[in-house]
Sequence to fold (83 residues):
Amino acid sequence: MDALLLVERLGRQIEGMRKTRGLTLIDLAAQAGVTRQKLSEIEKGSPTVSINLYAKVLAALNAELSVVPARRPSFEELREVFK
Fold:
């Protein structure tokens, strides 16, 4: 799996959690101790932001990172994509 794709997915998940909790970029950035600009980069999946900053944001959301093995889609899942 592509590393950039993984970082983009993480960023989207962080953005989703922030929005679900009704937090603005400024609110979450302040809670995490990062700038609004860095938080925006994180949510866009920037590969240049250190993992430490991703960890600060996850901690502010009271969330953790879980590593799971990647899997290939089943034939049924692929069939749905190409309908």
Q: What stands out?
A: Helices lie at 3-20, 25-32, 36-43, 51-60, 75-81. The CA atoms of residues 76 and 82 lie 10 Å apart. The radius of gyration is 15 Å. The mean pLDDT is 92.
